[in-house]
Amino acid sequence: MTLTKTLLGAAAALALTSGAALADPAIIFDLGGKFDKSFNEAAFNGAERWAKETGGSYRDVELQSDAQREQYLRNFAEKGFNPIVMAGFSFATALETVAADFPDTKFAIIDMVVDAPNVRSVVFNEQEGSYLAGIAAAYAAKGDTVSFVGGMDIPLISKFACGYAEGFKSVKPEGKVIVNMTGTTPAAWNDPVKGGELTRAQKSAGSEVVFAAAGGTGLGVLQTAADEGMLSIGVDSNQNYLQPGSVLTSMVKRVDNAVYDAFTQGENLETGINVMGLSNDGVGVAMDEYNAALITPEMKAAIDEATAKIISGEVVVHDYMSDESCPAF
Amino acid sequence: MDYLTIIQILDSTVRLATPLLLTCLAGLFSERAGVVDIGLEGKLLAAAFLAGAAASVTGSIWIGLLAGVAGSLAFSMIHGLASITFKGDQLISGVALNFLAAGLTVVVGQSWFKLGGRTPSLPTDARFGEWNLPFSDALANVPFIGPLYHELISGHTALTYMALLAVPLSWWVLYRTRFGLRLRAVGENPSAVDTAGVSVVRLRFAALVIAGVLCGMAGTYLASLAAGFVKDMSAGRGYIALAALIFAKWRPWYALSATMLFGLLEAIGNRYQSITMGDFTIPVQFMQALPYILTVIILAGFVGKAIPPRAGGTPYVKER
């Protein structure tokens, strides 16, 4: 990896010094990589959509290690890129220092709140989308047990699990939601074998539908669910096509919209906290030709009803991160 | 906890322990010959990647297995070249291989498949199928024996049975053949072997070849189980295998029990997020850390003594 790091570093340095036009936007992807079929890829798609529609160009970079966060951020800011979008909550610490040093540059961070005058903090109401996923699972399951596989054990992932459990229990109050986390280190995002094994264990405990919010580990969950004849629910990007006929739906987080919006607003990026929820198409459940056969009319009706209630404020889905606890567990 | 649950946990144990066992035996051969192999993790990853890539292109997991073994062998030979031929530091060479594998798999994977370092998902017929042993369906409904035979003993992949067969085979090779005697001697006292007119370099390379093949099988197993390669998918299994090797005191049968124990701990951790015993709750994180804690306890000499091969870690220099 040392070799690749050097090569990538050299390539990045070359790319940066080649003199980009001023005030192009830039995006920094997190360690998952921009083709993770999930979070980062959604961000990449948003940037690509912007480039295609406006004909503009943007700069992007994939991190190779945690240490590079501040380095790339500072580098991009010095080269005059504006705005700079960061895909991932892990950039918060680096951004706090860099944002203060470049008051004229606008930054956007996804999934985290950073309190600075030139930062736009995009947060998603994942619990709302997960709530809908829970309703779908409740209608798809014949019995009363469904399950959840999380990646690394952090509050953000529990937020998914909590919304899912709440949605499920809104339909089946006596039902059971088995919640498993893959691990406590970043390796938990890329362990499909363990994800598959967790899925099998959940199946033997009676689960019929498994919701995976676990990055690369989730691919193993979806695969095993297909092997074992279970239904699964994907996350972040629309993953319905990965195992057609087995993926019930995907809880999509429109990270692409967040990036697209930030790029479109350009240097006049609106700062402050930007909440993306059901009401502004920030989250939702994916419906397409790959899962059409799995969605029953009652399920669809229940999802639509819950969507309307959440938007109108009649139903408030609990946010795990607000008090680190979940009434539905 | 009912009988069927126990069988299911044991079944999961076998699946989780298979790659550990193969990797652990790989480490056993190489360390018994006096070459410390911290690069197991890298070999696993390289093998998983090449197996996933070859299987997705050709549609045959057996060709994937060949490719995985070839990749792992290539890494083994680089390790041998650096640490045997050029007498470099074995630890540094191993660590370098781990980094090389982590980086290369993603970069090469991206340029081949344009999927961000992943390989395409393997269809069912490009993965190892489950082998049903004779009478497994007929016996499935017999009480007690039925589930045991049908769920636990039958219905694993070919590689699992190969891994289990590799244990007695390793024992036989190491303790009942001339090659095995020499291999163990080379790890204890290479100059004595050299004095007897046997090539230390050749023996150590032979050990690395065996290690490469075993690691290649383990990597292919991972790629087949997860239906493709995902970056860093070995997720530390090479290191756990190394811990198991110490736990097993560098002996084949102990390696089987150590890897099965580690597999069992993981399977229990997967099945139960936390175990409540009376007023006391064991969190799942403790279960996940237990293999390492046990290894440290063994290393510290509280339970028995783990004495590594004496010449391990030092390159052999013919004359001083």
TrEMBL record, chain A:
Keyword Transcription regulation attributed: no
Top-rank lineage group of the source organism: Bacteria
Membrane-crossing segments per the record: none
Annotated keywords: Cell membrane, Lipoprotein, Membrane, Signal
Topological relation to the membrane, as annotated: Lipid-anchor
UniProt keyword annotation of Signal present: yes
Pfam family, one: Bmp
InterPro entries the UniProt entry points to: BMP_lipoprotein, Peripla_BP_I, PnrA-like
Subcellular location: Cell membrane
Ranges where the ABC transporter substrate-binding protein PnrA-like domain occurs: 29-317
Signal peptide: 1-23
Location (main, coarse): membrane
GO CC term (a single one): plasma membrane
Annotated family: Belongs to the BMP lipoprotein family.
UniProt protein name: Sugar ABC transporter substrate-binding protein
Automatic annotation (TrEMBL), chain B:
Protein keywords: Cell membrane, Membrane, Transmembrane, Transmembrane helix
Entry annotated with the keyword Transmembrane: yes
Segments passing through the bilayer: 12-29, 44-70, 91-113, 158-175, 205-230, 250-268, 289-307
GO CC annotations, alphabetized: plasma membrane
Topology versus the membrane: Multi-pass membrane protein
InterPro entries to which the protein is assigned, alphabetical: ABC_transp_permease (IPR001851)
Cellular compartment(s): Cell membrane
GO molecular function terms attached to this record: transmembrane transporter activity
Major subcellular site: membrane
Descriptive protein name: Inner-membrane translocator
The organism's taxonomic lineage, starting at the top: Bacteria, Pseudomonadati, Pseudomonadota, Alphaproteobacteria, Rhodobacterales
